[in-house]
C-alpha cells in the first residue's frame, strides 16, 4: 500500500496554510471527538484532503467514522487513475481507526481478490453499516461477513453468490438489502433453506435468484418489514415457497412477477403492497396469480392500508372462475382497513368486490381508465364503507367518459361522509374548459354529503 496518497501531495499547501491559519487554529482547539464528527460529515475525499492543511492535520482524517468511496466521483477512467483509486482505498483501510459505516461503489472492474480483501479488512474493523455496489460477477464474499457480530446494516448490490450455511448467520443484523445476488443453499441434501435472524428489522430482496432452493423459511421474531422485488425475466415455472415466521411483521411488499407462494401465518401486517404482473394475456397464469394473492391476503386480517396493482385486482376477480375446483379461498373482512390504492387500470367489478371486504374504508385511490359501463343503481347491497365511512376518493385517468361519470354519480349519491373527490387526468390532456365542464356536471348531481370538495387536475 502507498504510504502517502497522491491526494495529499498538493502544490497549494502553503496557500492553504496561509489562508486558513485562524480558522485552522480554532478548529485545532476543538476536542478530537468534535473534529471527528465534522470530518465524518464531509465527502470522504474532502476529509482526506484536510491532511494538506498542516502537519498537525496530516492524520486528523483517520478518525472519520463514515467512509463513502465511489470511483465515479473520485477518479477518471484512465488506467493510471484506477491505480490511484486503489491506493486511495488501501490507504484509508490501513490508517482509518474509527470506522463505523463503510460504503464502496465501483463502476470499474478491479481484481476480484483485491475487492474481497478490502471487504475482509472492513469487517475486521467492527463496522456497523456496510454497503457494496459493484457490477463484476467474479467477487467471492468473505466468510466473515455472515458471522460479523458488529454488523447492523448490510447492503449488497452485486452479482455474487451468497452462500448460506446451515447454521445461524448475522447475529446482530437489523437491516438486510440484497440486490442481484444469487442465494445458494449449500446443503445438497435438501431443497429447503432456512434463515434465522434474531434481531432483524428489515429484509429487502431485489432481483435475487434462489439456487438449489424450493422452500425458503425465514425465522425473524423482530422483523417489521419484508419486501421482495422479483425480476420479470424469471420463468413462470420457477415457483418456490417463502414462509415467514415473524410475530412482529407489520409491513409487507411484493413487486414484479407474482411467482412466490408466500406463507405468513399469524403476522400482524398493517400495510401490504402487491404491485405485480405476470402473464397478462394468459388466463391460466392470471387465475393462479389470483389464487396466490387470495391465499396471501386471507392471512392479513389486521390490514390498515392496502396497495394493489390492477393486475392483482384483476387476478383476484378472475380466480373465482378457475377450474378445476376447489374454489379459491374468499377474502376476509378487513375491519381495520382505511386506505385502498389500486395503482393501474382494472375492472370496476373487481374493485367493488374489495370494497365489500372493507367496511371501514376512508380513502380510496383507483385507476378508472378502462372501466366498463355498469348499472350502479341496480347494485345490492351498496358497500357499507361507501354509505358510512368513505371520506376521500381519487380517480386517476379520469377524462369524463360515461362509465367514469356514472361511478362518480354513484358515489356522490350514496357516500354520506365524503369530503373530497379528486379527479386526476394523470397525464391525459384536459383543457381548462373540459375541467370546468366536468366540475359543473358533477356539481349538479345529487349528493348525500353536505361538505364536499371536487378537484379536477
UniProtKB/TrEMBL annotation:
Superkingdom, taxonomy of origin: Eukaryota
Stored PROSITE patterns: FBOX
CDD domains according to UniProt: F-box_AtFBL13-like
Pfam families recorded: F-box, FBD
All copies of domain F-box, residue ranges: 24-78
SMART domains reported for this sequence: FBD (SM00579)
SUPFAM superfamilies membership: F-box domain
UniProt-recorded name of the protein: F-box domain-containing protein
Taxonomic placement: Eukaryota, Viridiplantae, Streptophyta, Embryophyta, Tracheophyta
